[in-house]
């Protein structure tokens, strides 16, 4: 049988509200197909539904920007209140220019706007809401994993993903920001190539590749298809963490 | 029916030699499954089999390194002959340090070693061979597309992919270096989000996301599964090129 990976968008997941039981929504969707999770399945969640369930929204009308945000607003032309929220989520600004703020997020990765999102958060007439990333996406993934493993009695992986821009290349791609039960980076060091030579490519961004794959079927229009089942992952599952993916600053030539 | 994307490694593709008819090998593999390509299918090819079929190998024993390669060898500790080949494939060195050379490839993208590969090229006892990237991967993809479209009478996409390291994040991921009949970057500008607000994320790295997805089922051990069929791409096909993916230097904050 050929090696085959299938990415299935889970249907019928409703708009998520703070306090919703996400595992219950995933299980209900799987029953709708119907599909039972089995050993080796990986569930990929868009950051947005995780953040919403965790109540990670902020009303910009309640934000009083500090001096750093005001200065950055002057430079970039962006909303000072939004920048105040972004700076609160960041360890530091990496690059900025008109219209663009790239930061090191408190969680350790480099991304635009600290992942703070203004789209698909409206629909609340009583405010000007933005959505922050989950506070601890590894922990979010881990809670989902436990709930699904208990329900299906199977060994599963869970990813929480977002879309990031990149250096050098146009277009955003899905990347993992939270990992549970899944090898974030796959170490193929020492495996021989076809001729028995040691492989030179040693570390594969496994979670990021699967995040990109899932991102394709999620689409970009927000919560339409915010959860994806990946079946047929051709390697073993394992334990992993966002931390495995983050290159230490002193090893990074591009900050 | 749920949105579903399936990535199938094409079985039984032999070790490729210079001059081999790649479309013929792909068609033979598809017949082995058996599977007929249909409108919207995308065939993803590992750079390595394209380069081999195009005879893009160089025997390091025939290379006399110039002064730039000798200087870079001193700095990085790498083989001066290999560096001479890398420099010949490059528009310039972006970063270097012991053990590492990151260049702008002549084709326009940033990557380590100009994509010159030492692994899986041995098996030729009469030399010390390395493999260059295809001379024009868009053209390679285009030739494959024409051959497959003529054979299957279907509208198809083709990607030629490689694995690249990235700024900030550990692990390589599959990226597109050649595109035919496929929207390299998907422009979602203007499409409303769930609440009717304009989407802020406008450009999706479609070809790179599909490259990453295909890379998962290819694995890393060279030519074992060097071609993948992607079925269920949820957007329209279109015309695209590597050039669409390359961020112009003056727009890039990370060189």
Structural class of chain A: alpha+beta
Taken together, the total number of domains of chain A comes to: 2
Global outline of chain A: globular
Largest interface: A-B, 79 and 79 residues
CATH fold-level topology of the largest domain in chain A: 60s Ribosomal Protein L30, Chain: A
CATH structural architecture of the largest domain in chain A: 2-Layer Sandwich
Number of helices of chain A: 7
Structure notes:
The structure is a homodimer of 255-residue chains. By secondary structure, chain A is an alpha+beta fold. Chain A folds into two domains: 6-56 and 133-246, 60s Ribosomal Protein L30, Chain: A (2-Layer Sandwich); 57-131, CofE-like domain (CofE-like fold), CATH 3.90.1660. Chain A is 27% helix and 23% strand. Chain A has seven helices and twelve strands. Chain A has helices at residues 22-32, 47-53, 67-76, 80-88, 137-152, 206-218, 242-245; strands at residues 4-9, 42-46, 57-59, 90-97, 100-105, 110-112, 129-131, 157-164, 173-180, 186-187, 203-204, 227-231. The first copy, chain A, has a five-stranded mixed β-sheet. In chain A, strands 4-5-6 form a three-stranded antiparallel β-sheet. In chain A, strands 3-7 form a two-stranded antiparallel ribbon. Chains A and B meet through strand 1, strand 9, strand 11 and helix 6 of A and strand 1, strand 9, strand 11 and helix 6 of B.
């Amino acid at each position: 049988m050929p090696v085959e990976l299938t990415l299935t968008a889970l249907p019928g997941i409703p708009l998520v509200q703070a306090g919703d039981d996400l595992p219950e929504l995933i299980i209900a969707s799987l029953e709708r197909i119907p599909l039972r999770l089995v050993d080796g399945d990986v569930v990929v969640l868009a950051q947005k539904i995780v953040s919403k369930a965790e109540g990670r929204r902020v009303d910009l009308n309640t934000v009083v920007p500090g001096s750093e945000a005001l200065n950055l607003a002057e430079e970039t032309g962006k909303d000072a209140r939004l920048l105040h929220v972004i700076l609160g989520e960041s360890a530091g600004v990496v690059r900025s220019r008109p219209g663009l703020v790239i930061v090191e997020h408190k969680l350790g990765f480099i991304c635009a706007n600290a992942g703070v999102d203004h789209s698909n958060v409206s629909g609340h007439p009583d405010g000007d809401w933005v959505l922050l990333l989950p506070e601890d996406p590894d922990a979010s993934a881990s809670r989902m994993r436990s709930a699904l493993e208990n329900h299906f009695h199977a060994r599963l992986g869970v990813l929480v993903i977002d879309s990031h821009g990149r250096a050098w290349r146009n277009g955003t791609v899905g990347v993992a920001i939270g990992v549970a039960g899944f090898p974030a980076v796959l170490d193929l060091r020492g495996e021989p190539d076809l001729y028995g030579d040691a492989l030179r490519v040693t570390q594969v961004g496994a979670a990021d590749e699967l995040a990109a794959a899932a991102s394709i079927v999620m689409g970009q229009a927000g919560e339409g298809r915010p959860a994806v089942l990946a079946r047929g992952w051709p390697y073993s599952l394992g334990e992993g963490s966002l931390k495995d993916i983050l290159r230490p600053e002193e090893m990074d030539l591009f900050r």
